[in-house]
Amino acid sequence: MDLTGGFGPRSGVGPVTDDEFRQLVTTMPPENTGGSFTALLEMPVTQAMELLHFADSSSSQANITKLAGDNIAPPHDPFGTLTFPSNSLLLDRAARFSVIATEQNGYISSADTPSSSANLDGGVKAEPSETDSFSENQNSKHNKRKEREKKGKSSMKKTKSSVEEDKLPYVHVRARRGQATDNHSLAERARREKINARMKLLQELVPGCDKIQGTALVLDEIINHVQSLQRQVEMLSMRLAAVNPRTDFNLDTILASESGSLMDGTFNGESYHQLQQWPYDGYHQPEWGREEDHHQDFSNQVKMEL
Amino acid sequence: MSSYNMVKQEFIKKWITTLHILDCSVEHPLNVTERKNAIKLSSDIAMAAARSSSTVWSRALISRSGNKTANKPMARRVLKKARNRMKNRCLTLRRNGNFTAKSGVRRRTELLKRLVPGGELIENKDYLIRETLDYIVYLRAQVDVMRTVAAVDSVTGNLTNDNN
């Protein structure tokens, strides 16, 4: 089974990535501390969305090279395919951001980066005060953002080395100090960097994880978090079972009150109306169930019951 | 308008569906434990369904729940598709056997793989972390919704009992 296929196009039922990206890009305050990547954040939504989606690479590459200036080597796809054979789409993404990443890394090595990264963090962390109080939402948006950023970094070294490979007949790859220059170890390093990037995302999603250094401890925290969430589900379902004499709760009243608490003050008239209506519409067709007739039966049943 | 709210809405929609179906297809179990299992099962299926089966964990959760509800018609219908997908992968895993790891990161990733449904089927650590991210978001949505429902229930429980 191709796992990667699942992460490509999203359906409307699983609204995790696309809307978050859109909202993130529109609500994120512009950062002016230099670096082409932060300039990327100021780009208009459509352009940024092109970069994020697996769209055609030509137009976005043009944008990137425009942004990054002319001292950046263009991404090398043939070399990339050597080390990322699994997903060409991921590859495209990484290649596109490699030009940005070279700039970004240059900034990181210099002294004024703490300010830029701090500004980035500050800019993103200012979001929760603006929007609603669900930190998970912000964090996952932030995560996907940083995920892109770090993904670019991972192919940075490869593009540098690939540029040198093109010039010389021998494989003279200039690596970082104290690190092997093997093809395999390069791939390993790139992979590790990607994983570390994702770990940082998880760090932000799991509360209280920012100060921990080291992959193992972060993984510990994540495991604890997942375990505690699962235990909470158990306890809450036990509680719900204890309160109600039957499994079929009185859902009308619960819905009415829940819509209020969910909307959290930003109470849209139309969304409430939508909530009221949908139990009686045909249910939205889930991906896995192409049984239209069955769902129609159940909706009729529900109408009769309620 | 935020996407987290949308996640919760999706979850609620699916949960109500599955609860109704479960309730119709089963003679009323009076035992608290059975009720709790039914609620948890329905909410798990709802959570996985809300994620639209484009993630590994949602498919794995659905197929895992299928074993528990073998008699229930809804589950069988719903799970047929997802279960076939997961079956092949599970078989290959069982054949490979278990490898216990001692060093820190390796051991913890295996632990994480056991926690996240379907995690054992993911070889690449990269995808495992992505799945975990997704799973945590939806798990939190589930917890939030259930907590709200429980809070409301404790308040209105007396009223409904009186009406009945």
Automatic annotation (TrEMBL), chain A:
Subcellular localization, as worded in the UniProt entry: Nucleus
Organism superkingdom: Eukaryota
Subcellular location, principal: nucleus
Keywords: Nucleus, Transcription, Transcription regulation
Biased composition (Basic residues): 141-160
Family matches, as SUPFAM superfamilies: HLH, helix-loop-helix DNA-binding domain
Gene3D superfamilies reported for this sequence: Helix-loop-helix DNA-binding domain
Region entry Disordered, spans: 108-167
All copies of domain BHLH, residue ranges: 179-229
Ranges of biased composition (kind: Polar residues): 108-119
PANTHER family for this protein: STEROL REGULATORY ELEMENT-BINDING PROTEIN, TRANSCRIPTION FACTOR BHLH48-RELATED
Protein name: Transcription factor bHLH48-like isoform X1
From TrEMBL, chain B:
Signal peptide segment: none
Taxonomy, superkingdom: Eukaryota
Keyword Metal-binding: no
Record domain IBH1-like N-terminal: where: 5-64
Location(s), subcellular: Nucleus
Protein name: Transcription factor IBH1-like isoform X2
Record key words, sorted: Nucleus, Transcription, Transcription regulation
Keyword Transcription regulation included in the entry's annotation: yes
Pfam family, one: IBH1_N
Organism: Camelina sativa (False flax)
Main location, first listed in the record: nucleus
